[in-house]
Amino acid sequence: MARLALLSVYDKTGIVDLARHLRAEFDFELISSGGTAKTLKEAGLPVTKVSDYTGSPEILGGRVKTLHPRIHGGILARRNLNSDLEELAANQIPTLDLVVVNLYPFAQTIAQPDCTLSQAVEQIDIGGPTLLRGAAKNFAHVTVLCHPDKYGAYLDQLRQGEVTREFRLTRATEAFALTNAYDKAIADYLNPLTPEVEPLRKQPRKRPYTLVGRKLQTLRYGENPHQKASWYGTGSSDKGWSGATKLQGKELSYNNLVDLEAARRIIAEFPTTEPAAVVLKHTNPCGAAVGITLAAAYQRAFNGDPVSAFGGIVALNQPIDGATATALKQTFLECVVATGCDEDAREILAAKSNLRILLLPDLAEGPKETVKAIAGGFLVQETDAGVDNTANWQVVTEKQPTPEQIAELSFAWKIVKHVKSNGIVVTKNGATLGIGAGQMNRVGAAKIALEQA
Question: Looking at 21, 250, 282, 447, which residue is catalytic?
Fold first, then answer.
């Protein structure tokens, strides 16, 4: 009896090649729905439409296609349980060996600025997640593929004579992760105070908070060598640090990524129209400045604390040019992140081959919430993205600050916002002179900052 594969995908990448190999090499019979069946037929492949296989037409404009006992019975039957096999035989239901499914592009749809609630709802896939969950649940007997980049690995398994249990389990885990992330995107979309959604609510919002990530990389270790660590992405692969371009340097470490994010948050305080630089160490700034040129801004930031800058992280809000690259090259740094890097700068920095150079065009793009684990749970708060309007400041002294002093205070405020408490920052002419960070009392923080200054 020929093996059966159900193919029902929105993203058609690689599906024709997979189907060809399934037919030519392994004599699979193919079952497909709607657009997938059309794609395979146009490629000259024999395929049975789901509606013909089940004897039930697609209804409700395609909302119901694969939700049928002949499909899900063939997926969920336990091949080592005689009662399941007897029920299949009595109902003339063949077993399915392979389920290949990916989902409607809900996240891409709601990302469109003109997306309406009704358009979003129509992109909530029902049959797809049900197929994925059913096949993943029965991984002991069925293989589920939800990512085109795993098609080749599955064919390799078949060529070796057996699809291993470990392979099926890994693919099942990926399927559950996909449906989890998919449901989270829907819940997050329906939860905010939006003009279309909020009037429908009868009760105050109360829902579980879920954090879903896709593993990007196993890191060498965590904050210390004895700690294991991994890097996960939560969203589009071209957003944030996973979408940064690394021009050169060693692999990023856990501490590098933590410090880079801290540096990004500080440099995001400054508009790209004014050259700005920050030098950071262990999540605290050791120097920050604005300047007439980017090179001048970096040099002023570095001069704020040259000793602490050694082995630090540098963030720049404009593309690196030759003059800035020459200045960067003068000391040992772990990482530099900027919005770009010209050819002259690349040639100069290439001499420091271990220096990690990252390009992140939008340094202001960051998370809207921060999450911190505690025993038995976690805390969630909005990211502190607020920009103070100096016009709203209340001056409590008789002497009023000059416009120049207000501008200097505004600069200092942007920096101290990112200094661990107790934190004191001393600045002059748009550059830090002394920073006292993370002290148990303000007097100690002030003493350190003033001694540096």
Answer: 282
